Amino acid sequence: MALYEHVFMVRQDVTSQQVDALTEQFKGIITANGGSIAKVENWGVKSLAYRIKKNRKAHFCLLNIDAPSAAVVEMERMMGISEDVLRFITLRVEAHEDGPSAMLRKRDDDDRGDRGDRGPRSPRGDRPDRDRGPRRPREDAPMHEGIA
Predict the structure, then answer these.
(1) What pLDDT, in 10s, does the model give residues 106-129?
(2) Which CATH number fits the domain that encloses residue 34?
(3) Residue 90 covered by a domain
(4) Closest Cα to residue 85, out of 144, 2, 6, 28?
(5) For the segment 52-96, what is each residue's pLDDT rounded down to a tens digit?
(6) Around Cβ 60, how many Cβ atoms within 10 Å?
(7) What is the DSSP string of 35-96?
(8) Is residue 121 part of a domain?
(9) Overall domain count for the chain
């Protein structure tokens, strides 16, 4: 059997319990067709880069799948029928990642709170590299009439 990473997006107005129910439904399709789910990650609601079917945000979910291709095709068919699923993508991989995915690691990094020791900030006037001095007139600029 092949290894797949599958990410799908669900409409923003669907509750997290409904997202979990959809995930269980898709897991059931995979297991019924002889596959298994190695990992399920719910990434939560994220903003989209552009509107998809009038939605600006969506619930994201990752499934690490070990299944025959027929099981994945059937799951994708059911996702295409579902009105709640906005988009999905399935990638065949050589091996699944151990531990949390990059998206969950990013969320953990964002929650760290402390930005480290940056030192005191200096006001803008104290930076000599920012002060360019007075402007000098451009020599190639045309002179306008009526301006003295």
Answers:
(1) 766 666 555 556 666 666 555 556
(2) 3.30.70.60
(3) yes
(4) 6
(5) 999 999 999 999 999 999 999 999 999 999 999 999 999 999 988
(6) 19
(7) -EEEEEEEEEEEEEEEEETTEEEEEEEEEEEEE-HHHHHHHHHHHHH-SSEEEEEEEEESSP
(8) no
(9) 1
Determine the structural domain holding residue 16 and report its residue range: 2-95
31/28 Cα distance (integer angstroms): 5
| CA–CA distance, 11 with 35 (Å, rounded to integer) | 27
Q: For the chain, how big is the Rg over CA atoms in Å?
A: 26
Retrieve residue 50's tokens.
Answer: 């552009």
Q: Which residue has the tokens 């531990």?
A: 99
In residues, how long is the chain? 148
Q: Residues near 125 by Cβ (< 8 Å), separated by ≥ 6? A: 131
